[in-house]
Amino acid sequence: MLHEFARRYRKEIGSQFDAKRCHIRCLAHIINLTTQALISKRSQSKFYDPEAPDDHIPDVTARNRDEVGMVRAICVKGCALSVIRRRPYTVR
Predict the structure, then answer these.
(1) How confident is the model over 23-78, as pLDDT tens digits?
(2) Is 6 exposed, middle or buried (0-12, 13-18, 19+ CB in 10 A)?
(3) pTM of the model
(4) What is the SS3 assignment for the chain?
């Protein structure tokens, strides 16, 4: 992940970023937490609840639509489907 960051940093900023020397432990976790914090401030949609799987989907007919909430809902559905597809099929 840091090598990709270094490549993009060099492309956007124009200077070098030493990925080995500047290694940050748990960088993916830090990025995940930061992204979740940004999304929660920008979006009013609910978090996914497996007991009520469609409650987190924002109202698409509203005048002020929640675009971030829509992207979140699409990602949650995509992740849920990939997990379901990986489960072994059992015949009942």
Answers:
(1) 777 777 888 888 888 877 776 766 666 677 676 666 667 677 677 777 777 777 77
(2) middle
(3) 0.36
(4) CHHHHHHHHHHHHCCCCCCCCCCCCCHHHHHHHHHHHHHHHHCCCCCCCCCCCCCCCCCCCCCCCCHHHHHHHHHHHHHHHHHHHHCCCCCC
Task: Say what the alpha-carbon torsion angle 79, 80, 84, 87 is, to the nearest 10 degrees.
Answer: 60
Cβ pair 40, 46 in contact under 8 A: no
Across the range 3-26, mean pLDDT stands at 83
- Chain centroid offset of residue 27 CA: 15
